[in-house]
TrEMBL record, chain A:
It comes from the Bacteria. It holds the Pfam family DctQ. This is TRAP transporter small permease protein. The complex comprises the extracytoplasmic solute receptor protein and the two transmembrane proteins.
Automatic annotation (TrEMBL), chain B:
It comes from Uliginosibacterium sediminicola. Part of the tripartite ATP-independent periplasmic (TRAP) transport system. This is TRAP transporter large permease protein. Residues 8-426 form the TRAP C4-dicarboxylate transport system permease DctM subunit domain. InterPro entries: DctM (IPR010656), TRAP_DctM (IPR004681). The chain crosses the membrane at residues 62-82, 143-169, 181-202, 223-244, 250-269, 281-303, 323-348, 409-430.
């Protein structure tokens, strides 16, 4: 049940990130077309692309925590005996939960405190929107790290849910 | 105090196996805890940390967007079947000399590296086609893997290299992307020549066979088939050099070109493959940009603790001879590169070593190329030799067996690095020439 929830969240996050990447591409192309075809440099497109980048990046970061996709120095871990490696893996996921909790807390408080301001050239968008992905990433990291700990206890592996 | 905590916690977490991005983040938190002296200061410091991470000095910079687009274009090229067309051209062009398949491998990896801009992607795409063919034709697996993994390293110096973008960002605006792109061209050619020489010499020694000359018509036909894919490099160079658009915008145009080629011209890209390319590009984007964001915090901590100045003074005590200093920097970068992946090495070491080398007369652009070559060397060296691991997995051979016969290839890479380090013109002549035309 918990694994299915995490798999669904992971798949949804990566799908949103992929869609976000396409939207960023459209923003960049619109900037070039705007400049050469409409003789207009749309500043909002640049700001929107940057805002979307935060969502694409941090959602994908959380997914990579679940899929073990982040770059690490695993050689020492591989060399350790099985009993020690298992304990170290608990510690690693515990540390990721700590960092995730910090991201969740500070992302949320920063989003609230910046909600009254707007992003320059995107008047409809509160500046707090730029901090939400930090909190989202933190929350997802906690869920996915707990999933990894459960998998370690059960002696199973967490499989990537999408690509 | 904060600096000691930062260094110790970072090293411990790395050894423990915590992913680099979170090792940097957690050690930065520990350094802030050590320097804050209480919750009153800690909370604003951590607010600053997360704001820096997502801010203009962190991951939220327009120039960074070139990175996901280069990754995306590379993925589309891989899924779109460019690899086969480049292999066919390389085999037709150089397959007839002794050790022909090895030479073809070098040429194919170099050309594909120019398109994908990633050594790892290059080894995956080219290696999975060429290594099994070479083994089938009687070439030893260690030779096939060494040729592929070393030829693929040229990808870090070519115009689509995301590491070039990473370096310019880590250099804090002191280096232009265009200068770096041009600076990488002659070293890339030099490295290819050295790789070809190493592949040929080993092939002669082991008595590998010659291929047959297919005739100019076949060479021309295979070149014509590969040319549209190779145009990605031309598009990027032309768009930036002519001032038509920025590096980021030219990268987005490269994506559209790659999509057009794969889906319309070659008709080899399915909807499923397109979605897979999107997902993979998004995932890699997350990994790289978060690392950039967190490294900005790390860089901020290094700067306020005056680490670059201290490192410079320390090295000045060892020697004041630029040749010795550059040699030392090469050694340090190589050692770090063997443990860390390219992106973290570039992001952490550039702010420290670039000012030192500049003080001793090395241009930041030349330093960038030296840095990229050192990191490339690290990619083929255990314990964290990413391209080597991928190559060995494809060749079904152990890293130990590959390391036994790596010397000629390693030698060619080291020779290139020494030449680039001590002959500035190799990396500086072309960007200076382009600049002089622009001024004129």
């Amino acid at each position: 049940m918990y694994t299915r929830l995490c798999a669904t969240l992971s798949k949804l996050s990566l799908q949103l990130a992929a869609i976000g990447l396409m939207l960023i591409l459209l923003c960049m192309l619109y900037m070039v077309i705007g400049r050469y075809v409409f003789n207009d440099m749309p500043a909002w497109a640049e700001r929107l692309a940057l805002l979307l980048t935060l969502y694409v990046t941090l959602l994908s970061t959380a997914v990579s925590v679940r899929d073990a996709g982040h770059i690490g120095l695993e050689s020492f871990l591989v060399l350790a005996p099985d009993w020690l490696r298992l304990k170290l893996e608990y510690v690693i996921h515990g540390l990721l939960i700590v960092f995730g909790a910090l991201m969740l807390y500070f992302g949320t408080t920063l989003a609230i405190s910046y909600w009254g301001e707007t992003i320059p050239t995107l008047e409809w968008a509160p500046d707090g929107l730029r901090r939400i992905p930090v909190a989202l990433c933190g929350g997802l990291m906690i869920l996915f790290s707990i999933e990894h700990i459960i998998a370690l206890v059960k002696g199973t592996e967490v499989e990537p849910s999408w690509h | 105090m904060a600096l000691t905590v930062l260094a110790i916690v970072f090293a411990l977490l790395l050894i423990l196996g915590v992913p680099v991005v979170f090792a940097i983040g957690l050690s930065s938190v520990a350094a802030f805890v050590a320097s804050s002296g209480g919750l009153d200061m800690l909370v604003p410091n951590l607010n600053t940390m997360f704001n820096t991470m997502i801010g203009d000095s962190g991951m939220n910079k327009l120039a960074f967007l070139a990175i996901p687009f280069f990754i995306f274009a590379g993925e589309l090229m891989i899924y779109g079947g460019m690899a086969d067309k480049i292999v066919n051209f390389a085999k037709a062009a150089v397959g007839h000399v002794r050790g022909g398949l090895g030479m073809s491998n070098v040429v194919a990896c170099t050309l594909f590296g120019g398109i994908s801009g990633s050594a790892v992607a290059d080894v995956s795409a080219m290696g999975s086609v060429l290594i099994p063919i070479m083994k089938k034709e009687g070439y030893d697996a260690d030779y096939a893997v060494n040729v592929t993994t070393h030829a693929a390293l040229v990808g870090v110096l070519t115009p689509t290299s995301l590491n070039i973008i990473l370096f310019t960002l880590a250099a804090g605006g002191k280096v232009s992307i265009l200068d770096m792109i041009y600076a990488g061209i002659i070293p890339a050619i030099l490295l290819t020549a050295c790789n070809l020489a190493a592949a040929y010499l080993v092939a002669r020694k082991r008595g590998y066979p010659r291929g047959e000359w297919p005739g100019w018509a076949i060479v021309a036909r295979s070149f014509a088939a590969a040319l549209p894919g190779l145009m990605v490099i031309v598009i990027i160079l032309f768009c930036i050099t002519a001032g038509i658009c920025t590096a980021t915008e030219s990268a987005s145009i490269a994506v559209v070109w790659a999509l057009f080629l794969s889906a319309v011209v070659y008709r080899s890209l399915t909807v499923e493959q397109f979605i897979a390319a999107c997902a993979k590009a998004a995932k890699t984007t997350g990994t790289v940009l978060t690392l950039i964001g967190i490294s900005a915090v790390f860089g901020y901590l290094l700067a306020i603790n005056e680490v670059p100045t201290m490192a410079g003074e320390w090295m000045s005590h060892i020697s004041t001879n630029p040749f010795v200093i550059f040699f030392l920097v090469n050694i340090i970068l190589f050692v770090l590169g063997t443990f860390l992946d390219m992106a973290p090495t570039i992001l952490i070491c550039t702010p420290i070593f670039m000012p030192i080398c500049a003080k001793f007369g090395m241009d930041p652009v030349q330093f960038g190329i030296v840095m990229l070559l050192n990191c490339a060397l690290g990619l083929n060296t255990p314990p964290v030799g990413t391209t080597q691991f991928v190559g060995c997995a494809i060749g079904e051979i152990s890293v130990g067996q590959v390391m036994k016969t790596i010397l000629p290839f390693y030698g060619s890479l080291t020779a290139t690095m020494m030449l680039i380090t001590y002959i500035p013109a190799l990396s500086m002549w072309l960007p200076n020439l382009v600049r002089s035309f622009a001024v004129g």
